[in-house]
Design goal:
heterodimer, A: about 475 residues, alpha+beta, seven-stranded antiparallel β-sheet, five-stranded antiparallel β-sheet, 16 helices, about 20% strand, disordered C terminus, B: about 425 residues, 19 strands, about 30% strand
């Protein structure tokens, strides 16, 4: 072990290698704090060459490694297998270039999502993917997780905005894939890498698309007697061929939590749910779209529809949505943020059943979700110190995933599989389907040493199934 | 019949027996796949038969080129071996269309025209810019692009899920039917545009687009290339622009076509701007389709056609570097330039050499990459039609060997010899 630490220190300097237990504690998990593993070291490279050298050092010592961005992921994607080296990319935080004329930016992986949009603002451009953690999360992590956000409905997720990547492969080689134009001559390796949860390599630079700020924005807040009628309104809006920038639902329990918190937005506490609709685009077209959304919301049962009069009011509407997770911190010590997707036509039915599952298990379950994408986020407030409650939380989660799959949906829309859901992959995919994914992984990482134990359910690679064969027996393996 | 041909016929007969009634095996006059004469077409009747056929091809040591509508068969390097065409025409059902959801599922052999007819009455359109007689599987495998791809998004962004028979014969699913999904690796993106070299697409879930309330096509008057390109970039960036193409010879003036689509107010406002600022006037509504047909046509009667990616600020340099006689179509909103060159004959080696050299020079003025999308077999020989690939080539070969270990599907056809 000390040989490995020496090798790591040789690459980045002693001050950029953490190895004492008290220093490693915070790196045992990401935002999914239920799953933990203690790394043997955390290293902070500052440039691509250092990442290459660190990867080679890990390989030489037979130790797996895990790339990490800001650690805001919610599925355990950055959770180290015990004894692994965490390669933390926060020092690589430079916006290398903003090419406003061609509407693209080149960034290092440690650039914070919101900082990129802030830097692009002066050119009338922004970076569209906006996960809720955008003030902290990094582009490298977004690429690994194919992060979404409220505005994915119109603008797409990270995958739609990454043009090219520089990647350090699991053997330490550096490779550039994709093109600034977005058109690759060969296979769509950018498409394969985005969302691969750091298992195919470590992104050391990303070329991303910037989009023009919308000419006009209108934000509506529609109040409904119950969440089911709000879901119906979403179905009507999609079915009518409108493509809002965002369609977000906040349910009664979430409203109560928000209104009792510092995020209070003045929402009606007797409402069953509110629907936030954001329309953007050509100013001349917006009045017609606002009128159409008003009609559809009213027809679905909205008791009131407000249109934000100015930026402050827009911010107030969004506070209810964006402050929801923070507000839930008041309800219980722990929060399990679930993530699943169903066809939008199934939303109303599925949400009712999700609430019923929570009730049946005696849990505090609230919903705040990207309704326009059918992307549910049932949130369960709980106390992990109560083993029985924790068991019920996990059982309810498993039932919710099975329900969503039975409705034609999938088990994650934006948080990823990580360690959280790898054993649920079988709900959706058969052995041959999963084997195809293993082939992709094996083409990049035949020895399974790059972020092992993620995405795929059954240990299969020799490094995962037989640590000894790979010389990984020096560290306890997950 | 040569010994090799005789062995091939025996192996194909053994394959037909192995797969049985699920496979229609047709002998026909030879058709040329990059100069290789192919006399057998295999048409599996369903997905299961497709999987058994691919497995049997591997067992018999045979290789096949997947065939959809035959619209993009010229794309790729000459395969190392072809014993049969593997046609998806029996897999042609639109199995699921959910108007309220804006998604649909169809078999790979479904003609895009049939799919369009099915979804249009409900107010949806198919965001794939390929001809009506192209098949869904073919358009996705080829990563088909046309002028409307600007508004539609690339095929990779339209596909929600795929059923794919791998080169090793397994019948697999990936992705899903919902519009947002990060469940496992994004294999649909890997398969889309891979020319059927990793697996044969059996069916696909697609995200549809609402049919725009209003469309309008305008022509941009002929202007000197640099001016036309600058104006074309501005036109392509209008709120409602869903297609913008500039056409002409590289060394001469270019004329343009812009299609606006969306809310009526937005379309009318942008049309007024184009008329005022660029002298645009109304044009035939079919003009974008004609541009696409021209883009897909090889310079008659023989010729070579290339795709050169270039950023808006690089387009003028690309045209400057190209042979002035090259016929070009530029999509400024897509960062793409298509260039085609006539050849005196299919074996006009000097003409092909000039064309490749001209395109390589043009690519150096942009991002250094290009691909040859159509060329006579002699012009392809000894060349990598996907242009310089760098480090991607080794990964492409590693993927090919994992997904198609026996080299059943168009071996050697894809980038990097995959």
């Amino acid at each position: 072990m000390s040989d490995l630490l020496d090798a790591l220190r040789d690459v980045v300097g002693a001050e950029r290698v953490l190895a004492r237990p008290e220093e490693l504690f915070v790196y045992e998990c990401d935002g999914l704090t239920l799953h933990k593993g203690e790394p043997c070291a955390v290293v902070f490279p500052g440039e691509t060459r250092e990442v290459q050298a660190l990867v080679r050092a890990c390989r030489a010592h037979g130790v797996p490694f895990v790339p990490r961005g800001a650690g805001t992921g919610l599925s355990g994607g950055a959770q180290p297998p015990p004894g692994a080296v965490v390669i933390e990319c926060s020092r690589m935080d430079r916006i290398v270039e903003i090419d406003a004329e061609n509407r693209l930016a080149v960034v290092q992986p440690g650039v914070v999502n919101a900082e990129l949009s802030k830097a692009a603002l002066r050119y009338g451009l922004f970076y569209a993917p906006d996960p809720s953690s955008q003030l902290a999360c990094t582009i490298g992590g977004n690429v690994a997780e194919n992060s979404g956000g409220p505005h994915t409905l119109k603008y797409g997720a990270t995958s739609n905005h990454v043009l090219a990547l520089e990647v350090v492969l699991p053997d330490g080689e550096r490779v550039e894939v994709g093109s600034r134009s977005g058109w690759s001559a060969g296979l769509d390796l950018v498409g394969a890498l985005v969302g691969s949860e750091g298992t195919l390599g470590i992104v050391t630079a990303a070329t991303v698309r910037l989009v023009p700020l919308p000419e006009g924005v209108e934000t509506l807040l529609a109040v409904f007697p119950d969440v089911v009628s709000a879901c119906r309104a979403v179905g009507s809006i999609i079915g009518a061929g409108l493509v809002p920038a965002a369609l977000e639902i906040v349910d009664r329990r979430t409203i109560a939590a928000v209104e009792a918190s510092v995020y209070a937005a003045g929402l009606p506490q007797d409402a069953g749910a509110v629907l936030i609709v954001e329309l953007d685009g050509a100013s001349v077209a917006l009045p017609g779209e606002v009128a159409r959304v008003r009609e559809l919301a009213a027809a679905a049962g909205a008791t009131r529809v407000e249109v934000a009069r100015d930026a402050d009011e827009r911010a107030r509407f969004w506070r209810a949505r964006k402050g929801a997770f923070g507000a839930m911190g008041r309800l219980a010590p722990d929060l399990y943020v679930h993530d699943a997707v169903v066809p939008r036509t199934q939303l109303a039915r599925v949400i009712e059943q999700v609430c019923a599952i929570g009730d049946r298990h005696g849990l505090t379950l609230s919903n705040v979700f990207h309704a326009g994408d059918g992307n549910l986020h049932p949130n369960i407030s709980f106390d992990r110190r109560n083993p029985d409650e924790l068991r019920r939380v996990l059982e309810a989660g498993a039932e919710i995933l099975a329900l969503c799959v039975a409705a034609g949906g999938v088990i994650t829309g934006e948080h990823g599989i990580g360690t959280e859901k790898r054993d649920f992959m079988g709900l959706l995919f058969g052995d041959d389907d999963l084997d195809a994914m293993r082939r992709l992984r094996a083409a990049f990482d035949p020895d399974g040493c790059c972020n092992p134990g993620k995405v795929l359910p059954t240990p299969r690679f020799c490094a995962e199934s037989n640590p000894k064969a790979r010389g990984y027996d020096r560290v306890p393996f997950a | 019949m040569s010994a090799a041909e005789s062995a091939r016929v025996d192996a194909l007969q053994a394959l037909a027996r192995e797969v049985g009634a699920g496979l229609e095996s047709l002998r026909h006059e030879p058709v040329s796949i990059d100069g290789i004469a192919v006399s057998t077409t295999l048409r599996p009747r369903d997905g299961d038969a497709l999987a058994r056929t691919v497995r049997a091809l591997g067992q018999q040591g045979l290789a096949a080129v997947p065939l959809g509508g035959g619209r993009h068969l010229e794309l790729g390097n000459a395969p190392r071996r072809v014993d049969a065409l593997l046609c998806t025409s029996h897999l042609a059902a639109v199995e699921d269309f959910e108007p309220a959801e804006g998604v649909c599922h169809a078999g790979a052999g479904t003609r895009l025209g049939a799919l369009r007819e099915r979804i249009a009455p409900a107010g949806w359109e198919l965001p794939l810019d390929a001809p009506d007689d192209a098949t869904l599987g073919g358009a996705l495998a080829a990563g088909a692009v046309g002028p409307r791809t600007q508004g539609y998004g690339a095929p990779r962004d339209v596909v929600l899920g795929l059923e794919v028979v791998l080169g090793s014969g397994e019948r697999t699913r990936c992705g899903g039917r919902v519009v947002k999904n990060v469940t496992g690796y994004d294999l649909p993106k890997l398969y889309t545009g891979s020319c059927g070299t990793l697996g044969v697409i059996e069916g696909a879930w697609l995200r549809l687009r609402p049919r725009p309330a209003c469309t309008r096509v305008l022509g941009l008057p002929e202007r000197a290339a640099a001016d036309a390109l600058a104006r074309g970039v501005a036109a392509a960036r209008l709120q409602s622009a869903r297609a913008c193409a500039l056409r002409g010879r590289a060394g001469e003036a270019l004329s343009g076509v812009v299609e606006l689509a969306g809310a009526e107010e937005s379309v009318e406002r942008d049309a007024r701007w184009l008329a005022r600022e660029q002298g645009a006037s109304d044009a035939d509504a079919q003009a974008p389709l004609r541009v696409r047909a021209e883009q897909l046509a090889t310079a008659a009667p023989h010729g070579v056609r290339f795709r050169i990616p270039a950023l808006p600020t690089q387009l003028a340099g690309v045209l400057d570097a190209l042979d002035p006689q090259a016929q070009v179509i530029v999509y400024p909103g897509l960062c793409l330039c298509y260039a085609s060159f006539p050849l005196a004959s299919p074996d006009d080696a000097a003409g092909a050499e000039r064309a490749f050299a001209s395109v390589a020079a043009a690519a150096r003025a942009a991002l250094g990459t290009f691909r040859c999308e159509s060329a006579p077999p002699d012009a392809k020989r000894g060349r990598e039609v996907f242009g310089p690939l760098g480090g991607e080539a080794a990964l492409a070969r590693a993927l090919k060997s994992r997904f198609d270990p026996h080299g059943v599907l168009s071996p050697g056809r894809f980038a990097g010899g995959a």
